[in-house]
Amino acid sequence: MGLADGDLYVSGSILSYQQANRIYQNFRAATVPSALQAGALWSCSADDKLHHQGTSELLEVFTEKTILTWENLLSNSGFGVWSQSDASKGLATITYDTGAKGAGSAPSVGDAIVGGTSGATAKLISYTIASGTWAGGDAAGVLTVGAVSHDFAFVDNEVLTFDGVETAAVNMPDSAVQVGLVQNGGFAAATTGWTAVNCTLASIAGGQVGNCLELTRTGGADQEAYSANMITVIGKIYKASIYVKSGTSGNEAFSFQVKATAHDGSNVAELSGTSSAAWVAYTITFEATTVVTILRINKLTATAGTMLFDEITCYEITPCCTAVDIVAMDGWFRTDTGDIYRQHNDGGTLTKDGSFYSLKLVPGPTGDYIVYPLSYSNAEWCQQFAGRTVTFGCWLKTSKASHARFRLSDSAGTSWSSYHTGGGAWEWIEVTRTIDSSATLFYVRIVGGAGNVDGSTIVYISQPMLIFGSSIGEGNYQPRQGEIIWLEKYILGNTLHALTGQSDKAMTDLNIEADSDGKLPKGCKSLFVYTGVKDSGSAASADYFALRASATEDVGYINSVGGKTNDSRNYYHNWQKCDQNGDVDYEIAASGAGTFDIDVFRYLGIQLN
Amino acid sequence: MIEIELNHREPRDETRQIAYVTMSGVDTYAFKFQVGNVPISLETDQEVQDHLNSREDEFHLFCLRKTYPGADPWDFQDPEKSDLENFQDWIEAGHKNKILMGEDEETGDPIYDYVVIENHVYAGTHPLRYPPSDEEISDALTYLDVVDKMDYEELKDYIANEVTTLAKARGYMIKLSQAFLALVKLVDSK
User: Fold this and answer.
1) Is the separation of the CB atoms in A223 and A215 below 8 Å?
2) Is pLDDT larger for residue B161 or for residue A286?
């Protein structure tokens, strides 16, 4: 029913947008309208307050604002969960020279890089040319790389190959900061950057790759070698690796420690083991707690002789998907030629205030995109949108015009957003579409155009939001509250999976982000954990593996094998609440020394805050 | 100084064997427990014994933890000391867990309380009896001849000595030990 100025309102009528707007025009005034009936509301343009005329001529003024919120229809909109991330997740910059085109022209975005000496691998994100040319064989500059394999150290003068075509050489002498964070982790010619305690150090042949570090005891119950200072960012996740082999002292106990601030500072992380006749790799994943971190190696006996170490690396790691497939962060997928990385919070530069992580899309030479959801053509997904108006919005950041935008698509057509201006700042962009009533598919696609190796075409994405409605508005993003994500692929715990021969262990903190190699985000609310444990003396002993949120809370998860046949494995899965940092504590009660095995430790799901 | 005596061993899997040991010197009594991660590559009893002896501190700490269930000595973590030394310091300081209770409202300083962890008798890990070897059975049968030749006083002393050894080995055997002593006294009174 239509209304005109002066009409009396009819109880039960519904106003159209135009009618509501007319009322707005009539009843938003700087002065109180005359002949106002009791119960009337009007908005005063002078004080921006809502006024109510009471029945006894009492006037009430309301100043509170109620912000309407909508449910975000996107899962994992914070880009925190990456259960199918690449195994290699290192980030690094490599100074290079003698860059040559070989049979190609110049390296392209997304090229796979291989170190000719070390065998280390990486993916090219961007690079600079400070001097020379690839055509002239003398290009020099800096490579920015991701998906770096942690096992081996890129070393000075090593030849790098780009997709098997172009070549360049690492130009990072042992006296300088190395690829990643460790100075001279490959010991190619010397022990520069490493300090000895109770021992002498030498670079000798016979390493895992080329030369290695030989530690020779000169005294003390144990001997130590520690790295130069590594500059780390508090809160970021790093992975350190080392190869160990027995020397002339035989198979002996050693430890590999991550130290805060100084070589004798507090332990950030530690692993221990016994050296053997063959080179064996060991890794630690940790969260930096200080701006200076040191790696320390310890030969833990007073036995005279040597112990050998090689390929000591430390990289910042972040989950990524760079393989030739469509795998992306949980709930999303991508084109198989584009590389995506999770970007850690940096206070609003490459991440946007309002979300801890952002997504870094590195388009390949022909352009790439990400899509939500995986199930975009399932009827149960499409039907909920049939005939409904939806709006998608997000923050984009890129340095190239007419390059980054997104679209809503159904089986009847597509609605494109405007492009990001390419000015390099974060811009909020939205697009609205009424989905076809017979839609058999519906998805959101965020697109980056052709990639450029100068880095200008990288697209950063933050706070995507899909709602039922016609407008979101900048600043109105919110993730799904208390969202539960069942991981597309289970994640093995670094610390506890396949941890055998354990004795009693008192409650110990487990950093979930580090333990999952960064695949799980900071600040989880709870975890769904699956374990399989056994004990060689369980028949006569109350043995168990337990989790709790914090020291002020009781055990919430317990896998008990007490009373079961000796070495009979018990499986159990359940939820465990996390502490305010998103971490948990774990405890082992074993029957004897080295009797308890944690054969299986998997994360199957999480609840986000 | 503790003593670790290998009693028995058996394979566990392709890489490990279980060693059943008696340990003494941790407290006023001896007890048995098992070590579940002895390398299978150690083929003789002596090699296994040497291996166990090299892990003396590890087992000592393990057994001390068992006698103080719930111990959480997070405030005794001197990096210059071993885990065993730090735990022994914690025991000597009163074996108390330091609990964070909250913060001082004015200063923001943490407020702690202390909870004493009681000492428990650790009765060991595995059943007292394990399958004896053929050699042990043969020795036992041979010794019957010796016992058969003992006079009354020798027999009484022998029973008392064996009962005392059993009592030291497993706390719950004290009742059985007392029964044997009562039997000896009964026989003695006849």
Assistant:
1) yes
2) A286
Prediction pTM value: 0.81
d(CA A308, CA A201): 10
Report CB contact under 8 Å: B37, A593: yes
Q: Are A322 and A121 in contact (CB under 8 A)?
A: no
* Integer Cα distance of A230 and A391 in angstroms: 46
Q: C-alpha distances in angstroms, A162 versus A103, A123, A158, A456, B122?
A: 11, 9, 13, 20, 63
Placement of tokens 């985000």 in the chain? A521
Q: A19 and A4 in contact (C-beta within 8 Å)? A: no
What does the pLDDT read at residue A529? Answer: 98
Contact predicate A532/A599, CB 8 Å: yes
Distance from CA of A536 to the nearest CA of B (A): 6
Pairing status of strand A292-299 against strand A306-317:
unpaired
Tens-binned pLDDT, residue by residue, of chain B (190 aa): 688 899 989 999 999 999 999 887 765 556 788 899 999 999 999 999 999 998 888 888 888 888 888 888 888 888 778 889 999 999 999 999 988 788 888 898 888 889 999 987 776 665 544 556 677 678 777 777 777 788 888 887 887 777 776 665 555 555 566 667 777 777 777 6
**H-run or E-run covering B46:** helix B45-54
**Which residues on chain B are in Cβ contact (under 8 Å) with A537?**
33-34, 36, 125-126
Tokens of A519: 């695949």
Query: What's the ipTM?
Result: 0.71
Distance CA A493, CA A586 (A): 12
Residues of A in contact with B125 (CB under 8 A): 537, 540-541, 591-592, 595
Q: Using an 8 Å Cβ cutoff, are A288 and A300 in contact? A: no
Neighboring chain A residues of B58 at a CB cutoff of 8 Å:
503, 593
Q: How far is B164 from chain A (nearest CA, A)?
A: 24
- How many Å apart are CA A268 and CA A280, to the nearest integer? 22
Q: Which residues contact A145 (CB under 8 A, 6 or more apart)?
A: A91, A92, A93, A94, A113, A122, A123, A124, A125
Nearest to A391 by CA among A402, A403, A380, A407: A407
The answer to whether A536 contacts B79, with C-beta atoms less than 8 Å apart, is: no
Strands A237-246 and A121-127, how do they pair? unpaired
From the candidates A536, A567, A586, which should be mutated to test the interface with B, based on the most B CB atoms within 10 A?
A536
Q: Rounded CA gap, A576 and A529, in Å?
A: 7
| Residue showing tokens 């409904």 | A388
Torsion of CA B161, B163, B165, B168, to 10 degrees: -140
The continuous run of DSSP H or E covering B159 comes out as: helix B152-169
Q: How far apart are CA A404 and CA A397, in angstroms?
A: 8
In angstroms, what is the C-alpha Rg of chain A?
Answer: 30
Q: How many CA atoms lie within 13 A of B119 on its CB side?
A: 9
| Residue A27: count of CB within 10 angstroms of its CB | 15
Cβ atoms of A332 and A372 closer than 8 Å? yes
∠ Cα A126 A518 A340 (to 5°): 35
For chain B, how big is the Rg over CA atoms in Å?
23
C-alpha–C-alpha distance, residues A368 and A398, integer Å: 14
Burial A4-16 (b: 16+ CB within 10 A, else e): eeeeeeeeeeeee
How far are the Cα atoms of A20, A279, B44, B48 from residue A251, in angstroms, in the given order?
83, 12, 19, 16
User: Rounded CA gap, B7 and B52, in Å?
Assistant: 12
Q: What are phi and psi of A142, to 5 degrees?
A: -130, 130
